[in-house]
Amino acid sequence: MRSKAQIIPNRGELKRKAVNYKTGMDIKLDPETLKKMEQLVENSSAQFLDETVESLKGLREALGRAASEPSARREVLEHIREEAFQIKGMGGVFGYPLLTEFAKSLHDFLKELTDLDELQQEIVSIHVDTLYVVVSHRIKGSGGPLEAQLRASLKAAVDKAKPGSKAAP
Hints:
Elements: H1 13-17, H2 31-68, H3 73-91, H4 97-110, H5 118-136, H6 145-161
Helix pairs in contact: 2-3, 2-5, 3-4, 4-5, 4-6, 5-6
């Protein structure tokens, strides 16, 4: 025999523990504190961009290694996949959705690959270059017509290089 489900009433403990429960979320900050917080966010964003540039340099080096050492391709593939995932996750946090979009395109492209042929290496290289352009020009938001064209070109290249496509070797 099944017992009847018991409904336990919410005692509201989480609401009591919430910040500014009585006054809501309208937190008044003095101008000095607000300026410090904005500076912290700006510094974090600059640090993110610097780290992303270093990461992209590392990806370029890894691609060179994959081209010259075929035995390293699987390791390089995994490294690039992980870096693309990291960039994808952090781009939006710092106001670079285009960076997130291009990194997602790269990550998705690599998701099911187990090796990198020459065409696929070229597609990865184009992605890395595209990411570098976004970072170096600090393109915030979704960009303009040029970025839309880049988006379409990347998609066409990815579709062409996917295993099983008619254009793939």
